[in-house]
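Dear colleagues,

As part of the handover before I leave the project, I'm documenting each prediction I ran so the next person doesn't have to rerun anything. This entry is a single chain, and its sequence is reproduced below.
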Amino acid sequence: MLKSKGNEAMRPIQQMAVAGKWTWWFVGLVFLLQAQASAEDKYKPAGQLFREGFDDSQLLKREWYDGEKFAIDNQNAKDGGGSLSFHFPAKATTADNTRGARRLFGPSETIYLKFYIRLSKGFGWSGRNYHPHLIQFMTTENGVWHGPAASHLTVYVEPVNGKLRLAAQDIQNKDQPHGLTQGELKGGYNAELYNSQEVLFNDDRWHLVEAMFQLNSLDLKNDKPKADGIVRGWFDGKQVIERTDVVLRSTDFPKMKFNQLLVLPYFGPGLLPHKQTLWLDELAVGTKRLVDEEATAKP
């Protein structure tokens, strides 16, 4: 009887001890996660918004969207455990193993991109002064599902006929008060093109591509854009494109900022010369140039 009463008397104390044990466990877990996040931030390059190593196919769990399937090549990676593979069957316009995807990031007037790319041996071009498309950025002036081909501003990073091309179009602005900034419409399209002088993509090795776009400033008092936008491109660490007198927006869009990345390789109908593959790896987006310790290609 006394033993039973003693057990009853001790029960609240035992419950408090158990609760205390779990409280300290939870506090320890929070501390560990904070320490891990702090360590990750410590080694995160200044200005980096996000990076993607394409080591597995779970991109939709890492804030990517608008994609159906992702083919990870574990035998052909620049670094890490895999790369993202795009295999184009003969006469196709899109890859049959990866459908591409989008990713949002914090809005910025300056955007920087770097990634590694590899083309299959004998990779063929369209034979035209356009295509294939590869990677695009869009802005806060369009919705998160808006197509890149006819927007208030889409900028492009892509290999065209072996050269690195950076480009911009703003087809959707044809009815805006200040109209188009990327040239007149021709066949329903417009674009300003910035190409490397030399052919750069001429083998089947990994190469580092970097690009930067900075929106031009605006003279709102006089209702005019300033020609001080910047477009820069690098190939294996060497600068191959530079323009510092670019207009990417008019005063119709004083609040415009880049906020969306699209990885959507595409050949126009009838432009794919034969079946072929391209791979992407170690992609990163930031608000300033993210210097890579290894700026040269690995065979």
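The chain has two domains: 1-43, 47-286. The radius of gyration is 25 Å.

All the best with the project,
I.
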